[in-house]
Amino acid sequence: MSVLPNIKVVLVEPLYSGNVGSACRAMANMGLKNLTLVAPKIVDGWEEGERLACHAKNILEQRQTVQTLPEAVADCAAVVGTTARLGLYRQHVRMPREVAPELVRIAANGNVALVFGREDKGLSNEEVSFCTHLVRIPTADTYVSLNLAQAVMVCSYELFLACDHYEEPQEKSALAPAAHRIKLMEMWRLMLLKIGYMNDEKADHMMQGFQRIFTRGAVTEDDIHILMGVARQVGWAAGKQALPPRENPTLPGNP
Amino acid sequence: MSVLPNIKVVLVEPLYSGNVGSACRAMANMGLKNLTLVAPKIVDGWEEGERLACHAKNILEQRQTVQTLPEAVADCAAVVGTTARLGLYRQHVRMPREVAPELVRIAANGNVALVFGREDKGLSNEEVSFCTHLVRIPTADTYVSLNLAQAVMVCSYELFLACDHYEEPQEKSALAPAAHRIKLMEMWRLMLLKIGYMNDEKADHMMQGFQRIFTRGAVTEDDIHILMGVARQVGWAAGKQALPPRENPTLPGNP
To answer: Testing the interface with B: which of A139, A165, A170, A219 to mutate, by most B Cβ within 10 A?
Structure first.
């Protein structure tokens, strides 16, 4: 059971519909659906918001609107304020990444509100006083204030990851076992000798270079098949004509 | 020494200047400065881009523009493509959070490019073939495609955090040692007895409730002073008049 439906995003007096729409898209990307606006002061109509919500227009359309922050968070066990500013009563800010696991635990038993202030001046001290948690997104010292929708993205992203819902794509081809890698090196050794890239005397040394090249990253069974195919085909092509021994064979790093 | 100056953001054929401007702001928030555009196809002029870059207009103004991706990344040891799509040659995508420490290590010795595709169709397979790393931002299955500037934010944020530059704000007041917490509980016990909130018989039991309330979160020396001040002041105020013993003293959870 996902706890994401128990998490809502609350925007206090947003000014620009584009930010609200972008916030909706960020929420949808991160599996959140519930948006509440507190006394919105939209100055530019909703067209830009609808455009930027993109495939998350349903979140924008289904938003709740209330007049005060206490109304917006009345049903929430945790109220997480976001702030870029510091001050006497904001010293206990934590990083979203640090708080996220705790918020996910709380969301299993109650509602959680992520609260974002106005574009121009954030949350007031009174609004901060309604919060049970206070987070500050890490930034460079030289520019600490994020765009509203970007702040929604970072916080939603951290909650989404803390929920552990995301399954990283897996490669379909398994990693190659040592036996296949060794067989590949044998085929390449024969091929490189056959085409005169190296001679018997230097072969052991030169093959270490290829060993390094082919095993530095992950090598899958598919990779092995591709590289064996090259060796086979070169062997076949080289069989058709006499090749001159290559002079001064070198590999970068193996002079 | 920060490695952030060795990291550049490359946007391939961006369409909307607003996304480029928002990406600049996200970069500035996360300490990045170098922006390269590959064959930009801006359809709406640069006004919106300048507006959304906000205090990061310098990044927008100092951008490089080139015609091909190979030109943009020619000087880069690591070329990190971003993709929302999966496919045969995109199976080895990893999460930005997972790759970030490796990229920071590489950036200590060479340049790193974070490459983002077009708003409408991302990076082509040929462009992906120029990449040494491929990342995919974790999302809900229902909406995997992030806004371009949001994708820049998430990747930049992960690199910034992996650099470990951010120092979390510290509370100025130290956490209170046990001796002060115990002294506080003694003062509250006396105060609560004095005002008739509880009687001697129930005091041990009821004080466990206050102990729980006051020690559930972190308690700083400042917090201790505030709460001791309350006890002192109540004691003083209560001394001025005779109080009736409170009936049926209860604490929520301690019935």
So the answer is: A139
Mark yes or no for CB contact A147/B56 under 8 Å. no
How sure is the predictor about B253, in pLDDT bands with cuts at 50, 70 and 90? very low
Residues in A touching B225 (Cβ below 8 Å): none
Q: Indicate yes or no: CB of B139 within 8 angstroms of CB of A29.
A: yes
Domain end residue (candidates: A138, A163, A188): A163
- Asked if A150 and B54 come within 8 Å (Cβ–Cβ), the reply is no
Pairwise CA distance, residues B191 & A129, whole Å: 26
Residues of chain B found within 8 Å of residue A131, distances taken between Cβ atoms: none
Dihedral sign computed on CA atoms, order B44, B83, B132, A235:
negative
pLDDT at residue B150, as a whole number: 98
Q: Could you tell me which residue, A42 or A250, shows the higher pLDDT?
A: A42
* Chain A CB within 8 Å of residue B144 CB: yes
Q: Is the pLDDT higher at A246 or at A167?
A: A167
Which among B163, B192, B227 is the end of a domain? Answer: B163
Instruction: Name, in order, each residue with C-beta under 8 angstroms of B235's C-beta and a sequence gap of 6 or more.
Output: B190, B191, B194
Asked if A142's CB is within 8 angstroms of B160's CB, the reply is no
pLDDT in tens, B83-104: 998 877 787 889 999 999 999 9
pTM of the model: 0.83
Asked whether residue B14 is assigned to any structural domain, the reply reads yes
CB of B172 within 8 Å of a chain A CB? The answer is yes
For residue B227, how many other CB atoms are within 10 A of its CB?
19
Is the four-CA dihedral B58, A141, B79, A162 of positive or negative sign?
A: negative
Domain annotation covers residue B170: no
Q: Which of B149, B154, B166 sits opposite A157 (nearest CB)?
A: B154
Tell me the ipTM for this assembly: 0.81
Q: Considering only CB atoms, which chain B residues are within 8 Å of A165?
A: 140
The domain in which residue B197 lies consists of 178-239
More confident residue, A77 or A166: A77
User: Which has more confidence, B109 or A7?
Assistant: A7
What's the CA dihedral at A71, A73, A76, A78 to 10 degrees?
Answer: -150
Q: In which residue are the tokens 């996360």 written?
A: B30
User: Count of domains in chain B?
Assistant: 2
Cα angle: A33, vertex A38, A44; to 5 degrees: 90
- Residues of chain B with Cβ-Cβ distance to A174 below 8 Å are none
Q: Which residue did the predictor score with more confidence, A34 or B174? A: A34
